[in-house]
Design goal:
N-(1-d-carboxylethyl)-l-norvaline Dehydrogenase, domain 2; 2 domains; eight-stranded mixed sheet; Rossmann fold; alpha/beta; binds nicotinamide-adenine-dinucleotide
C-alpha cells in the first residue's frame, strides 16, 4: 500500500543520504526519483562521462516527474558524483545497486561495500534475476542485503519486487517495503528466492512465444506488439491472469474455467505441446530488421517520451478508479 504523504515523509527521513551504484538505464532513473523525493544522492559509476549522462537523463525525466506531481526542477542541488566506492558509501543510509548483471561482480561489490558502509544502511540490489543469497555470498553480514527489483523505468512503473536472501533480517524486509512505498511504489515481497523473480519469468514466457510466432511467420513484430497492447496489455493493467480468467470462467469463475469442458483445460493441454524456440541467426536477424523497419524510424528519446506520457495517463486514469482495498497504482 502506498504511504500517505506524512507517513512517507517520516519513512524517507530515515534515509536522507542514498548511494546509487551504477547509473545506466536503471540507476539514472532511480536517481531522478530519489532526488524528486528530496533525498541526497551520491552516484558511483566509472563511466568517464557519467556526470553528463546523468544530468541529461534528469532533464529527459523531468516532464514525467512533473506529470506525476513530483518536484522536477533544481534536483541537481542534492546530487553528487564520487568515483571512489568506499567514499561513495561511507556516510549513506541506503545503497541502491544497479551495476552489471554479473553474479561475481555483485558478490565482489557487496563484500567491498560492507567494509565502508554504515552498519545501519539498507543494501538493495536492482538485479533482474540474481538472488540476494548469491549476491551476499562473500559478505560477513548480509542481514541488511536484499533485492529491490524495479521495472524499467523505476521512476514510473510502480512495481518493486522485494526479495530477501536466506540471511536477510526480517526487519530489513520491512524497511525496504516501507522505503519503496514511501516513494509511491508498489512493493511486493516474494516468499522465496527464484532465479528471475516473478515479473521477469512472466515476461520470459511471453517473449519466448512472441519470438516463436515471428519465427513461424504468423505475424511481424509490430503486428504482435499491436495485438498485445490492444488486448492482454490493456487487460493486465487492470486484472492479472488469475482474476481475468476467473471472469473468463463465467459465473462459476476459475473453478469452472479449469473444470471438465472449461477453456482452461484446453490451455493446460496445450502446455504439453510447446515446441522449443531456437534464437538462431535467421530469427535474430528477422526480429532486428523488422524492429528497425517498424520502430527504428522514431528516435529512442521520442519513444521514451511517448511511453512515459501514455503510462502516466494510464496510472492517473486507474488512480481515479481506485476501490477501497486496491493499491494506489502509483
Ligand atoms: N534495463 C532494465 O530493463 C532493467 C530492469 C530492472 C532491473 N535491471 C537491473 O539493473 C541493473 C543495471 O541494469 P541497466 O540496464 O541499468 O544496465 P546499464 O548497462 O544501463 O548500466 C550499468 C551501469 O553500471 C556501471 N558500472 C559498470 N561497472 C561499474 C562499477 N564497477 N561500479 C559502479 N558502476 C559500474 C556502468 O558504467 C553503467 O552505467 C542490472 O542488475 C539489471 O539486471 C535492469
Amino acid at each position: 500500500m502506498t504511504s500517505s504523504p506524512p507517513e512517507a515523509k517520516a519513512v524517507l527521513e530515515r534515509y536522507p543520504r542514498v548511494a546509487v551504484i551504477g547509473a545506466g538505464v536503471i540507476g539514472s532513473s532511480w536517481t531522478a526519483l530519489f532526488l524528486a523525493h528530496g533525498l541526497h544522492v551520491v552516484v558511483n559509476d566509472p563511466r568517464p562521462d557519467i556526470e553528463a549522462v546523468v544530468r541529461g537523463d534528469l532533464a529527459k525525466i523531468a516532464p514525467t516527474l512533473q506529470a506525476l506531481g513530483l518536484p522536477s526542477q533544481g534536483l541537481e542541488k542534492k546530487l553528487r558524483f564520487e568515483p571512489d566506492l568506499a567514499r561513495a558509501v561511507a556516510a549513506v543510509d541506503l545503497v541502491q545497486e544497479n551495476g552489471p548483471e554479473r553474479p561475481e561482480w555483485k558478490q565482489q561489490l557487496w563484500a567491498s561495500i560492507e567494509k565502508s558502509v554504515p552498519a545501519h544502511a539498507l543494501l538493495l540490489s536492482s538485479s533482474s534475476a540474481r538472488p540476494a543469497t548469491e549476491q551476499g555470498r562473500d559478505m560477513k553480514d548480509p542481514s541488511r542485503l536484499l533485492v529491490g527489483h524495479p521495472f524499467n523505468p523505476p521512476h514510473l512503473i510502480p512495481l518493486v519486487e522485494v526479495v530477501p536472501g536466506e540471511r536477510t533480517d526480517a526487519r530489513a524486509v520491512e524497511d525496504a517495503v516501507a522505503f519503496y512505498a514511501a516513494l509511491g511504489k508498489v512493493p511486493r515481497v516474494l516468499k522465496k528466492e527464484i532465479q528471475g523473480f516473478v515479473a521477469n519469468r512472466l515476461q520470459r514466457a511471453i517473449m519466448r512465444e512472441s519470438c516463436y510466432l515471428v519465427q513461424q511467420g504468423v505475424c511481424t513484430v509490430d503486428e504482435l506488439d499491436d495485438i498485445v497492447t490492444s488486448s492482454i496489455g490493456l487487460r493486465w493493467a487492470v486484472n492479472g491472469p488469475f482474476s481475468s480468467f476467473h471472469m473468463g470462467g463465467g459465473p462459476g469463475g476459475l473453478a469452472a474455467f479449469f473444470a471438465e469442458g472449461g477453456l482452461g483445460r484446453n490451455m493446460v493441454a496445450a502446455w504439453q505441446n510447446m515446441p522449443p524456440v531456437e534464437m538462431d541467426e535467421v530469427l535474430k536477424q528477422r526480429i532486428v530488421s523488422q524492429t528497425a523497419a517498424s520502430f527504428g524510424r522514431v528516435p529512442m528519446q521520442q519513444m521514451e517520451r511517448t511511453r512515459d506520457n501514455k503510462q502516466v495517463a494510464l496510472l492517473q486514469a486507474l488512480r481515479g478508479f481506485a476501490q477501497p482495498g486496491d493499491d494506489d497504482p502509483g
